[in-house]
Amino acid sequence: MRTRRRATLAVLLVVTTFAVSSGAGAQQAGDVVTASGSVSVGGSYTASGTSGTGATLPPSGTYQASVAFTASATLTSFDILTQTGTFSSSGAYTAQVSAPDVPTFDGSGSFAVTGSFTASGYTLSGSATIAAPDSGSVTFNGGGGYDLGASSVTANGSYNGSVQTVAFGAATVSGDYSGAGSIAVNPNAITMQIALPTNLLGGIGTAAAAGPIAAMALATRAPAATPPALGSGTGTFATPPAPLPTSGVSLLQWNGGTLDALAMATQSLEGVSITVFVGGQAVALIPGAPAFVNAAFVALYPGEVPAGTLLALVR
Fold it and tell me: What's this model's pTM, rounded to 2 decimal places?
């Protein structure tokens, strides 16, 4: 039964790659196909790196990514007898990423991969950009397996990137990733006769990029499970006598802690900036801003911001 299934898939692969559609010629190696669809991938990652302010990033985690993509996919070579070949794929993506203790967020960017494949597996290397909400780039390499009939895919490998983040400022991150999920290609994107394997390979490229993209975004994102921003302990603001307004300026007393803790607490309160007044002069810290913007604040507090410091929070 397994032999028959493999033979059927092999025939399907050959037919869908080279069959002639109505009024069109057979697809040839080198032809570019526009592939579009969606990918759902979940898995785990490790991360090693630090932010520009010296903060150590979360070392590992899990992720779930739902990605919509449009890509130009090319079957650069194909051997009918061995069912092997090479491919490239590049395009744009939008992704919704979620993880335990991290609010779900949306991201977007572009990716490009090149690789080789067999009837059930692939290896590749590639790169991706992250345009929002953080900005940066990541390179990755790895491989995995796929099932033509089920449109399922697995992916694992390593990644290395740099990013300008909302929560930590500039950061470099590297590590490993793995994941498994499914691909849904748009049946209206191209004719069904050439939908496989080139169209599916566009989805495989997206699925392989989803892990590194999610890892980069999550490793540099402040988790929701951080200590509360208001309280009595180090790294918090003293609880004010009345609820904070949803917008405007609030005067808060800091309970002591590092600049990173102050930035994280400010972000947790959805603050845009936190300001101290010294000699009548305002000195502001804007979480996630380039280093030169916060240079005066960092120079004022090169270690920790002392307990009892009064600060103006802007929301």
Answer: 0.63
